[in-house]
Amino acid sequence: MSIIRMDTGARMSSIVIHQGTVYLCGQVAKDKYADITTQTQTMLEEVDTLLAQAGSSREHLLSCTIYLKNMADYDAMNAVWDAWVPTGHAPARACVEAAIAEPEYLVEVSVVAALKS
Asked: pTM of this prediction?
């Protein structure tokens, strides 16, 4: 039973693949000083990049957990999210308010996806 780890550091791997399932480390925005819309867009661009690197895509999402610094940003984040998720391919999802490691970040996502067959 093999486990593939990509972009592995001392603390975490960016991607872990096991038995046809892709696990991504938490993804945040490219610019932590941007507004919630831009942070969500660039965070999801990072997800797309990592999914492609792993051999998956947003059409293969299984589960996503979204962490918002402030639930007041829920509607703005969802406007970007809803446009990003392909019709008919919505994952199981949770969205919670949480303190994120660096206080400037407004949103973070944890993703689990299937490999493309």
From this structure: 0.95
Residue closest to 22 by CA, chosen among 6, 38, 40:
6
Is residue 26 predicted with pLDDT exceeding 90? Answer: yes
Closest CA to 97 of 74, 117, 71: 71
Cα–Cα distance, 23 to 51 (Å, whole number):
9
Instruction: Tally Cβ neighbours within 10 Å of residue 5.
Output: 13
CA 27, CA 7: separation in Å to the nearest integer? 14
CA distance 61 to 44: 12
Q: How far apart are CA 30 and CA 43, in angstroms?
A: 7
